[in-house]
Amino acid sequence: MTDRYGPPRFSRSGLRGLKPSATLSLNDRVREMWGLGLDVYHLGFGESRFPVHPKIAEALRANVHQRSYLPAMGIWELRETIAGFYHRKFRMDVSPDQVVTGPGSKSLLYALVLALGEELILPQPSWVSYASQAHMVGKPVNWVPTRPDRDYVLDIGDLLRVMEDSRDNWGNPEVLVLNSPNNPTGTMLSPDAVRALAEFAREQRLMVLSDEIYALTAHCQVPHVSPAQHYPEGTVALGGLSKHLSLGGWRFGLAILPPGPAGEALRQALGCIAGSIWSCVAAPVQYAALVAYSDDPDVDNYIDQCTRMHSIRTHYLYQGLVEAGVPCVEPSGGFYVFPSFDRWKDPLAERDVHTADDLAMYLLENYQLATLPGSAFGCPPEELCLRLSSSYLDTESEEKVASLVEVFTQDPDPARFIENHHPQTREATTRIAEFVADLRYE
Ligand code: PMP
Ligand code: GLU
Known about the structure:
Layout: H1 22-35, E1 41-42, H2 54-62, H3 76-90, E2 99-102, H4 105-115, E3 119-124, H5 128-136, E4 141-145, H6 156-168, E5 173-179, H7 191-203, E6 207-211, E7 235-240, E8 253-256, H8 260-277, H9 283-292, H10 297-323, E9 336-337, H11 345-350, H12 356-367, E10 369-370, E11 372-373, E12 386-389, H13 398-410, H14 414-421, H15 423-441
Parallel strand pairs: 1-10, 3-4, 3-5, 5-6, 6-7
Antiparallel strand pairs: 2-8, 7-8, 9-12, 11-12
The structure holds 4'-deoxy-4'-aminopyridoxal-5'-phosphate and glutamic acid (GLU).
């Protein structure tokens, strides 16, 4: 590979074994298929697609003239505004010094994975990018299996066992990644589970990277609690605008660092990394983010409304799976469900489907359903789990998505919202049920 192309020669470190992001490449593939006129039900990408709130759009337009490089950690006014927002929304005592911004929380995560600890501990399953980032910076990953019958909550005993095994083998697991609401499972950690994990992390002197990008998309059965509320000195909480305000392409993320000298040292490290890679978040986006974090009542209402729409759409998909007899844990935040098709291993094997990748391919080819295999999230390939996202169905075009918001504002009744305005969601759910019925009766 290295010599096959002549110059350039590819570096082995970091690149070797690195795969394209499963989420982004499936999205590209579905868009290509749509471009060829093919019918595909896109359950494969987690992108909140509601329109930009008019006040935030106006702030971006009003700041197009902002063209200078800004401080690497973000303008002070924005860091102050975000600190206030986190205090009001999440009861977190945050000073503006602790707030850093970056081009998407993904970039900040990468910088943190680079800066902190020797090895990562990841729940299995976990979002696609944590393991590839660890891979890029040459840090081993210790996977801790989680179970659907425990709502995918990390078990402290399992966590300890994996850490001990690693240490017995000269390993040094020091950074624990938590993600609630969760991608891919759609579940949330209860306040008690957050406390227990935070206390465990403190005892073990682990650094916690708490990915809270879906915090404001919690469906409200379970309140969102950050481990930083219990273990501020050892937690970095990550957030951004991609999910609750549908601004993924604007690339705005933030991290709340620990207070005190440790947080200050980490801020300096992140400043060095940011200064050497991305310099700062795009200047107009920083000024627009000021409005997004200002507690404007219209923006707040819009966030609630979008979250209710995600909740209704995701629960419809979940109900469809349950009614078809597919084991699946009830979602409580974000827009994902993570069903298992293990109980149909035998009929699937007869169709040459042996792995989750085979299953995702089979559904795409035979039912036009685009999904992601659990293996993309670190699950063993033979576990027949899939991640389905409700976020793209019936939001495929700007017109559709604008009209969804309009009709929901006029009539927020969940049943009518689905029945009258979600043909793709209903058809995708019907196709899943047909697939399961075919496995039973063919
Ligand atoms: N964490 C999780 C769990 C995600 O699903 C995403 C989605 N892209 C991100 C982080 C990164 O989001 P962004 O870089 O857009 O802030
Ligand atoms: N977070 C989204 C997903 O899991 C997609 C964007 C990304 O992976 O960066 O589908």
